[in-house]
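ok, trying the design again with the full structure, not the truncated one.
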């Protein structure tokens, strides 16, 4: 096959495929837009948030990047006061949006939701992002001024709360410190009273120190090494006296030998 003919066939095939893909994309976009339109109608005519939400979800399912479907779904949540889900969808819309107008609307409504949730500091940033995409919107500029004032009030309130917390903590610490001192003082007083009582117990009725009574026998002094104890000396003296008495009796007996014994008693 001629090379030129092959290239020509390839180009025709590619072009035909591109046309088919474009038609398919248009079909998907049309389908997604129809669901968005259906959701808008349900909200406008019937205020049927549940059915409108389902329609917007179908639009997103058909084409995940359909900004209108995501944005309108976020707004439906906002109107039904489901602020957390609304904020999530609008943030998603701000990222998928391709035009500044779409981004501006998404950020503006995000700011409104954040104000509803009393997140003023975050709302300030949302309104600033909205103004970057459309600096001419006076409503966004007005809301930004309100959000700034609210953020300042919250900042001052938080500061006051922190100061109050610090003061409360210091007061509590001081109270605990005084309590500890009082406990120590009471302990010292109790100890002093106990010492005084013990001191009084050692005195008589006239306040004079009581003499300690000792019912035990006086202890004998211990003998020094090489010395006899008083008891040993006493025993020794008694033994000597007994021996001396025996000797004396023996002498007397010797003297009386040869003397006649009287048979009669003298009157």
């Amino acid at each position: 096959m001629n090379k030129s003919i092959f290239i020509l066939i390839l180009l025709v095939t590619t072009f035909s495929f591109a046309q088919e893909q474009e038609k398919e994309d248009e079909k998907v976009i049309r389908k997604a837009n129809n669901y968005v339109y259906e959701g808008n109608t349900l909200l406008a005519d019937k205020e049927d948030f549940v059915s409108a939400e389902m329609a917007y979800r179908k639009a997103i399912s058909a084409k995940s990047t359909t900004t209108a479907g995501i944005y309108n779904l976020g707004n439906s949540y906002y109107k039904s006061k489901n602020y957390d889900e609304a904020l999530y969808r609008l943030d998603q819309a701000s990222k998928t949006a391709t035009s500044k107008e779409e981004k501006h609307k998404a950020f503006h409504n995000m700011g409104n939701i954040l104000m509803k949730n009393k997140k003023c500091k975050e709302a300030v940033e949302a309104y600033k992002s909205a103004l970057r995409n459309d600096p001419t919107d006076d409503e966004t500029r007005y809301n930004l001024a309100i959000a700034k004032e609210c953020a300042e009030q919250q900042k001052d309130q938080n500061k006051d709360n922190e100061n109050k917390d610090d003061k409360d903590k210091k007061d509590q610490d001081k109270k605990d410190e005084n309590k500890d001192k009082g406990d120590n003082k009471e302990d010292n007083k109790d100890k002093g009273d106990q010492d005084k009582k013990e001191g009084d117990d050692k005195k008589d009725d006239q306040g004079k120190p009581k003499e300690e009574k000792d019912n035990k026998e006086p202890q004998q002094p211990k003998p020094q090494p090489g010395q006899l104890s008083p008891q040993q000396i006493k025993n020794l003296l008694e033994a000597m006296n007994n021996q001396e008495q025996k000797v004396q009796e023996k002498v007397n007996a010797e003297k009386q030998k040869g003397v006649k014994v009287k048979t009669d008693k003298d009157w």
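Keeping the full-length input from now on. Helices lie at 3-46, 49-62, 67-79, 83-96, 100-116, 120-133, 138-201, 230-255.
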